[in-house]
Amino acid sequence: MPLIDRQITELAHGAPVGFDYSGVVPGECFTVAHRDLVVREVADLLSYFDLVMIHHDHNERSKVDAIRERFPGDAHRIVALVPVRETEAWMLADPAALKEAAPARDAAWEVPHDVEKVADPKVVLKVALGGRRDAERDFGRLGQTVALDALRKVPAYRVWTDELRRAMERLRFL
User: Fold this and answer.
1) Least confident of 79-83, 111-115, 146-150
2) What are phi and psi of 151, to 5 degrees?
3) Which regions of the chain does DSSP assign to beta strands (E)?
4) Nearest residue to 24 (alpha-carbon basis) of 43, 39, 3
5) Distance CA 42, CA 78 (A)
6) 90 and 151 Cβ atoms separated by less than 8 Å
7) 21-54 pLDDT per residue, tens
8) Secondary structure of residue 39 in the 3-state scheme
9) Where is 41: in which H helix or E strand?
10) Distant-in-sequence, close-in-space partners of 5: CB < 8 Å, separation ≥ 6
11) What's the distance, CA 98 to chain centroid?
């Protein structure tokens, strides 16, 4: 979620007029829940927020489209955040952030060039962090430090930010 906040804040800096942004509010339902539960939560979120972001991994790629079909009038307010495999791979895009997270470890040489081709990003992230921590715990912290410029080199990240920008433009935030 820190990464989402940072990306929206960066987009806001380019807005012709300012807008209020109070940060990401996570939903309570995971997309692996029964579809009707997810749809019910999306409906609730759409009644309170301008945008609803749905994150899921590659194996659930069609879920966001199925959910959008349930909200034809508001589909443009639903933004998909879908990595090629897992969003943990995005945290591998910035060797400097990894080095900062694990200063005793020279992670740069271990980080793959194309992070989206990593079969198990969580395992590689854990190794890059020296195996001393649970990668899930570091994910939020890396989201605060990973360079957005490095992330823009990751195709799935660009797809997400392009969709986010279009949604914000349609809502006249940008």
Assistant:
1) 111-115
2) -65, -30
3) 52-55, 78-81
4) 3
5) 9
6) yes
7) 888 888 888 877 888 999 999 999 999 999 999 9
8) helix
9) helix 35-48
10) 23, 24
11) 18
